[in-house]
Give the backbone structure.
Amino acid sequence: MYKITDYVSWVGKTDWELPRFHGDEYSIFKGSSYNAYLIQDEKTVLIDTVWKPYAAEFIEKLKSVIDLKSIDYIISNHAEVDHSGALPELLAEIPGTPVYCTKAGIANLKGHYHEDWNFVEVKTGDELDIGKHKLKFIEARMLHWPDTMFTYMTGENILFSNDAFGQHFASELMYNDKVDRAGLYHEAIKYYANILTPFSKLVKRKIEEVLSFNLPVDMICPSHGIIWRDNPAQIVEKYLEWSDGYSENQVTIFYDTMWNATRRMAETIAEGILSVNPDITVKLFNSSKQDKNEIITEVFKSKLILVGSSTINKGILSSAAAILEMIKGLGFTGKKAAAFGSYGWSGESVGLINEELKRAGFALINDGIRVLWQPDNDALNRCFDFGADAAKSI
Ligand code: FEO
């Protein structure tokens, strides 16, 4: 337990070992945490719990600081199992304790655990008086599940934002003013790019709605990672930027290659881009060798992406195809793209990549470039010019 203020303590679990999240869909390199918070006012309130594998440890630690029977209310800001996972064991010890959540939260918790707990449905504007403070509930539908809500604590001016503003970043330093800023922002933008991008319109609208309430916010306590206590508005401003067709002056090239022909194309295309504008950040990734979520993060930052694959069995190499599938679901907006690839005879890959990019909402800048077998000097010159033209398109 770590005291955050006189009334609020962190009672979550830091998961230093977590390698993947959402099954295999999200890579974790800096660990994560499941942040649960205990409020001790005239009433005792628990906000969220931890992932199920840590339920017993969570409850044991909670028991070492309070009598579980003293918990008056449980707030479930979000039903996903990384935050609700300890509810079954906890409520087995304190049956009947009210669980405050949204209507969708009730449905989702019932769907996960098939228990008819003492649910209390709340909506935006509802309040819970806990003594010297009040808790105000704000529905945050699709940030990132239908059930998600925020809880705001008056007096302490804390926004418990659940997944929003979170990061998969484990640190005993707890607070944004104590950890490495670049590392923190990398994890925050990776989280946004890979999890929240599909809901960007709703993110923008929700933040504008919350800002219209004019609630003072001294601290944002998300359900993963670091707490924003130094100028918490900074991450809100970042979310407003990220949710509004965000891009930097960057081109990302990702490709897969069988015998290096497509790799040589990629590298020459990059040289062509930089020949036109050396200030553009150009990043190259072999999608079979590098992490897909990191590549997605770089795609999110880019004005233009170039996607390459050799043709195999009339198709695209599987690592490039997997990232194209992810991109399609994420719904990036306002980005341009083009395809490239080597082939030996049939040469379908470029056409197929074009189709995938169009389906993903990217504006194609041309029909792409193909090279038969290994590129000779003429082919490399064509790739260089392709890169130069790509640079001029942004
Ligand atoms: Fe961290 Fe959507 O759960």
Notes: The chain has a mean pLDDT of 97.
